[in-house]
User: Fold this.
Amino acid sequence: MEKMYYDIDFEKVPKHIAIIMDGNGRWAKSRMMPRTYGHKAGVETIRKVVEEAQRLGIKYLTLYAFSTENWKRPKDEVSALMKLLVTYLRKELAELDKNGVKINTIGNISKLPQVCVEELEKSKEKTKDNKSLVLTLALNYGGRADIIDAVKNICAAVQSSKLDINSIDDDLFSKYLDTKDIIDPDLVIRTSGEQRLSNFLLWEVAYSEFYYTDIHWPDFDEEELQKAVYYYQKRDRRFGGVK
Assistant:
């Protein structure tokens, strides 16, 4: 057993943790390096966090890797991010598969470069039967866009008489979202000091706990993940009720 930094109750570990990986650029800037240097360091952090999540018994890990708004960034930075995605998948796929990690995506990945789409589809196919951890990469993802698409599809189903409007409730609506195959997050972590959702899982985080840290993503390690889980376990989750 590797070192435990906090007294974690393994019976109360969150089933699903979602992370807004923020601060790569600021981390690089503080070292007088280009932003791409920070993104490369951030990829190394992903490896450590995935391994620690498995060790703690977390079953779902969702990473906000590239939002619908990130296309506004400089073209060279976007290109570098896409290359890092391909490099990560090619380098880590065998190990992820060996460790029972299932790779999943949310967002419209068809808009990504073809090589990214091919590597993602290959990775998803190879790991589709794995059960240890579902690693979901949010790519070209936006919570508002996902909700709008769900509304359009529900409206189309009602108009074609495939769906009774009176049957629409929370559970049915959730089945029209990209996240239909994964449970809602128990805990949302955002690094680098910002305290906003940035269009991430807007429907799904209705009753999630939130943990914010000033640590930039490249410096977020096993100890920091344990700290976030420890914080989560101290929360009193009432889901709108009274205890």
